[in-house]
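SEQUENCE-TO-STRUCTURE ENTRY
===========================

Subject: a protein chain together with a token-level encoding of how that chain folds.

Sequence line: the amino acid chain in single-letter code, read from start to end.

Question of interest: how does this chain fold, as expressed in backbone structure tokens?
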Amino acid sequence: MGPECNTETDEGDVFFRILGPFQVSVGNTVVKLAKNRQLTVLALLATEANKIVSVGRIIDAVWGDASPITADKQIQTCVWRLRSVFEAAGAPANIIETTQGGYRLRLGESGLDAWLFERAVARGRSRVEDGDLGGAAEEYRAALSLFRGQPLAELDSAVIEAVATYWAERRLSVLEECLDLELAMGRHRELVGELRLLVEEHPLREHLRAKLMTALYLSDRRADALAVYRAGRTALVNNLGLDPCARLQDLHRRIIAGQPVPSPFPQRARHAAKIPAQLPAGVGDFTGRLDQVEWLCRELNQDRTDRPRVIALVGRGGVGKTALAVHAAHKVRDHYPDGQIHANLRGSTEPRQAADVLAEFLHALGVPQRSVPPDLSGRATLFRSVSAGRRLLILLDDVADYEQIEPLLPGDRGSVVLCTSQPSMIQAPGVAMRRVDGLTTAEGVQLLAQLVGAERIAQEPESARLVVERCGHLPLAIRAAAARLNARPAYRLDRFVDRLSDEDRRITELTYGSLDTGARLVASAERLPDVARTLWLLLSVMNLTHVSAWAAAAVADLSEDEAQRLLDLLVDHQVLDVVSEDGLGGSRYEFHSLVRIRARALAAAELDATTRAKARDRLLDVFSWLEEHARVALRSPRNGLTRPAPASVLRIGRTIIRDITQYADVWLAQERPNLAELREPLVATSV
């Protein structure tokens, strides 16, 4: 049998079209509808056909946030008029049903073109599974023919627009499946024209561009295929500041070398619904980190069930955790034949709810929407059942904490969960954790050369090294710097270094479009408790080359134990670094250079001058007394100071006094840089 997408209806049957301009017909007669809010109400009911739609949702669709007081009554009037129109057209009397709290549009199983579309797609995938590729292509094309233009484009409603966007994206997704199938069937010459139009319409959709390049190359038009790549690269660089994805670059290299290109897998359509392949595109210019890539691939390829099945990459924003995770995940994807799932949990900004993420996971694994439980516990239980016995690679990006991902963990150790996170995950049971730091200077220069051109870097190698250092060795900052340099092709690197040397403008220079270095670096600071954030801001404006717990206590007017707990929290949120142990058995902390600049700007905006001055006075008071005590202890260890310790020192605790008495020479040596810096004026910046 051929495709079954006939939209002709019997007399009295009602048929709705949403895959294009909104249209309703009864039998073979198109119903004339007024182009006002009645049309919006009916369109919303159609997109949710056979489901109860609340009055509140209808009001949102019609008026948004500006609904009138009489909105409920006006909706009732709209529904009454719609019923009258349908009655006059000969539709069933109960087509719009009033329910408790809302309305429901009652349609037969073939009453909506979107339903016919999905059935045809399902039949196409089934035919692929049966080996009937020609029949599958017919089903796909029949499904796609149901689209008559931009879905619901004439309706001015944010709610309807979201539905329309979904169906437009759904059409493209199915079209890509169909094109893959037809390319695999050898129809490359026939597809060139259609693919050219699609690429012109969607110039940044790299999957379509790859298909056009493949079709041209297989049609013995290699020069044209290379021209399509160059045009795509120009569009990506101009619009996003990015190079093409690794897959497109690999295809480009194969075409240049005259090598065979990978043919789309003939059964891609069947697997699309059952085996998810959601990994983001790899970074084509991924640089360095050989040891970390080797370790990560080894962990991901591990089959032993006694090893952790949760792997966490931890580091500050902009350090390249996601790029590393995606790069390694692509290397081992064949080790997980049951699929790869990805979700951005937005832990450093607005953490997503685990229940919402689980719904997406279940849908990706083939669970129908109607079978997804409404509660978190039910979804987590079903996910463990569905994933049991499968080998899945689950990539969770930007995790807030272990609590956020715990419901997302599969119960079977055949799968692995790879996380990226700013806060430490060390408290999580059975997690293999690896800290990700910045690139080495050589790696940073190599990345910069890939982004702006090796010839430009070779002309000013020392300036290139200084750019990397001013970027704090962070890939995000280096990419932002490269984007700015690419926007100024004649600009010398040494002049750019001069601009970066000015801390008042460095963060601005290292922000370009979506490459917002300042925001990404301190995003997690927004989730700090107020007392911890205040300490962080105060420390940033103190002239300290390093920070000890007792110094933090002096700045914040706390005990050393209280300050230590806050320092641990700052380290956990990646806004302060532990750099070494001091000579007295404690830890020393430092700011990353860019974090400090950003923190100082925030301090200038959030802390008044009096607060900063009082903190500095306490710090100077403590430092002065401790320095005097240390020098007396060196001369006469037994006698100590005759001048009593001030309240600011006693507030910290007596541990520091005892330690300095015993190790005065060590303390003086390690604090000499701070003693010199504290004589400088208090930092006040407006970065």
